[in-house]
Design brief:
- The chain is globular and about 90 Å long.
- The model has no long low-confidence stretch (mean pLDDT 93).
- Helix 7 runs parallel beside helix 13, helix 13 runs antiparallel to helix 14 and helix 15 packs across helix 20.
- It has 20 helices and 27 strands.
- It has an 8-stranded antiparallel β-sheet. A 7-stranded antiparallel β-sheet has the order 5-6-7-8-12-13-14. A 5-stranded parallel β-sheet has the order 19-18-20-21-22, sandwiched between helices.
- By secondary structure, it is of the alpha/beta class.
- The protein binds 2-deoxy-2-amino glucitol-6-phosphate.
């Protein structure tokens, strides 16, 4: 939930830390802070005279940045943090870094210390003084308690004491040439460069400086000096691991002239979709051996169990429909947060799939652990190489959407849907449940999807105009059926997330069982109604809400003259096959939500109360 960055090397660190925090701001943005090791010249005995200067502020990073720019402090070793509050309000005092009683140790932390109250009482009883309401503040005091000349050892002792999750990074004036870190569940990576070394919550934070990374594993500790990154296992033994080279570039992680990351990422979808198909669907041929499943295994599959949260859950709902339709395998989709607590049934002949763009969502991780503990083999679909879920799963399929910075999932969603389509197609072919003609037709249509998405994006102004006419409404209902339903759910989620307007995604046929009572002149009903097998049904549903005086905005197939009679606003999608409307119809909804939020003056990249990866329960 929070973002962490640290640097030690031969460059001044203030700008490196602030730049890194800005790239991490999507992880948390209620307060931010940096701590810099400042040298005051040699001491009498020859050793360096150093102090740690902390600058922190409530609010977004720019609040802290202003003070940091004015403060005449700089040094070549420092740590920075952007916070998403869990314990204690988002105030300056609760912002990280936190310090021990002596002010010699500074700590940043992403995660939750579950036993902090107990630890805090013990520490208080032995004379430690606390000033914040955070769980994190116990960490510098624990380091103070355990420090006897070796900061790494103190960190390793601390790890044995705390319960919960955390990526923890610390530095001390008693060891001015090093930064130490530790990981329990929450992500932590080391970046390696000739000019110095980094720790960060994820790669975009330091992509500007290096593309060489080492993932720190659970329960490992790490020691950074200007010239070395040393990693120690759970027992404290030095381990060696070579860095991998990330294929993300800094350009991916910048706005490149767009007003917001969200808009940029919406517009990157033709590319993300193409990249996610690349190597898997070429010249009419589907290659998906990377699924790592033998034909025999696929034929014997009794069930596919998919787990996911939020937007990824909506991708799973499309996956369910195509796998059932094309491959005739029953598919169950569960929210990870429910699955993990419902004592689920696991069988060897089930395929277990976890979908998560970040690869860090704690509920999904816990559900995977639960399934694996019962003998399931887990396949993860994720966008982040080296993420915790990628490493804890038995196999991984990567979406290739590139880094997604906006808190709202957009391009990662459409890339996930592509993987769902390819999976359904592949299973259908191997099980012989898809006729050659249908198989060929689907492949042809899939090849055309990037261009059709581009066609919608080229007409973004039409959606801007519809948003301008409707943004003042207080209630939005997104209705869909079959492949339009996941799009309706996702459209409502997008609108809620960034505009804070009440919105519901609902199966159109269920309206008369309750929600139709909501509709009146204040309601906008967004109907996802391509000309598919349920077109006539949803057309009737739309007429029902229109009769109750709702404003109707219909997303229709190009040239559908009939629907035009029943809509106040319309957007025409290029035509495709029924199943692929699932991916096409979300594009106008993303843009529509975006423009409504912009009309309302909202911050679409960093909506209130949300964070990009939800690494706390
Ligand atoms: C999407 O816009 C949301 N921010 C959120 O629902 C997200 O999809 C969910 O938290 C799951 O994240 P994941 O894909 O990284 O697991």
């Amino acid at each position: 939930m929070c973002g962490i960055v640290a640097y030690i090397g031969n460059r001044n660190c203030k700008d490196i830390l602030i730049g890194g925090l800005k790239r991490l701001e999507y992880r948390g943005y209620d307060s931010a802070g940096i701590a810099i090791m400042v040298s005051k010249g040699p001491k009498k005995g020859g050793s360096a005279d150093v102090s740690i200067e902390v600058i922190k502020e409530a609010g977004k990073i720019k609040e802290m940045e202003g003070q940091a720019k004015e403060a005449r402090v700089d040094g070549k070793c420092g740590i920075g943090h952007t916070r998403w509050a869990t314990h204690g309000e988002p105030t300056k005092i609760n912002a990280h870094p936190h310090r021990d009683c002596s002010g010699k140790i500074a700590v940043i932390h992403n995660g939750i210390i579950e036993n902090f109250e107990e630890l805090k009482s013990e520490l208080k009883a032995s004379g430690h003084r606390f000033i914040s309401d955070t769980d994190t503040e116990v960490l510098p005091h624990l380091l103070e308690k355990y420090y006897d000349g070796d900061l790494l050892l103190a960190m390793q002792r601390l790890m044995g004491k705390i319960k919960g999750s955390g990526a923890i990074v610390a530095m001390s004036t008693d060891s001015p040439g090093e930064i130490v870190g530790a990981r329990i569940t929450s992500p932590l990576i080391a970046g390696v460069s000739r000019d110095g070394n980094f720790l960060a919550s994820d790669m975009p934070a330091v992509l500007e400086h290096t593309r060489n990374f080492i993932v720190i594993n659970d329960f490992e500790t790490v020691k950074l000096t200007a010239g070395k990154v040393e990693i120690f296992d759970k027992e404290g033994k030095l381990t060696s691991r070579k860095p991998f080279k990330a294929n993300w570039s800094i350009k991916n992680a910048e706005k490149s002239g767009y007003e917001d990351f969200m808009l940029k990422e919406i517009f990157e979808q033709p590319y993300g979709v193409k990249e996610s198909m690349r190597g898997r669907l070429t010249n009419g041929q589907l290659h998906f051996d990377e699924l790592g499943l033998t034909a025999e295994k696929i034929k014997d599959l009794k069930k596919v169990q998919i787990i996911a949260c939020g937007t990824s859950y909506h991708a799973a709902l499309i996956g369910k429909q195509v796998i059932e339709k094309w491959a005739k395998i029953p598919v169950e989709v569960d929210f990870s947060s429910e699955y993990r607590y419902r004592d689920p049934l696991v069988d060897e002949e089930y395929l277990f799939v976890a979908i998560t763009q970040s690869g860090e969502t704690i509920d999904t991780l816990a559900a995977i652990r639960e399934a694996r503990s019962k003998g399931a083999k887990v396949m993860a679909i994720t966008n982040v190489v080296g993420s915790t879920i990628a490493r804890e799963s038995d196999s991984v399929i990567y979406t290739h959407a590139g880094p997604e910075i906006g808190v709202c999932a957009t391009k990662t969603f459409t890339s996930q849907i592509i993987i769902m389509y390819l999976m359904g197609l592949y299973f259908g072919k191997i099980r012989g449940s898809l006729g050659i003609e249908d198989y060929g037709k689907i492949i042809d249509e899939l090849h055309m999807i990037p261009n059709k998405i581009q066609n919608i994006l080229n007409r973004a102004d039409e959606l801007k105009e519809i948003a301008r006419h409707t943004f003042k409404h207080k209630c939005f209902l997104f209705l869909g059926r079959i492949f339009g339903l996941p799009a309706a759910l996702e459209g409502a989620l997008k609108l809620k997330e960034i505009s804070y307007i009440h919105a519901e995604g609902y199966p159109a046929g269920e309206m008369k069982h309750g929600p139709i009572a909501l509709t009146d002149t204040r309601t906008v009903v967004v109907g996802i109604m391509p000309e598919d097998s349920v077109y006539d049904k949803i057309l009737s549903n739309i007429q029902e809400v229109r009769a109750r005086k709702a404003t109707i905005f219909s997303i229709i197939s190009e040239g559908d003259e009939n629907s035009k009679k029943y809509a106040d606003h319309l957007f025409e999608m290029p035509r495709t096959i029924e199943e692929l409307y699932g991916i096409l119809s979300i594009i106008p909804l993303q843009l529509y939500s975006y423009y409504i939020a912009k009309n309302l003056g909202k911050d679409v990249d960093q909506p209130r109360n949300l964070a990009k990866s939800v690494t706390v329960e």
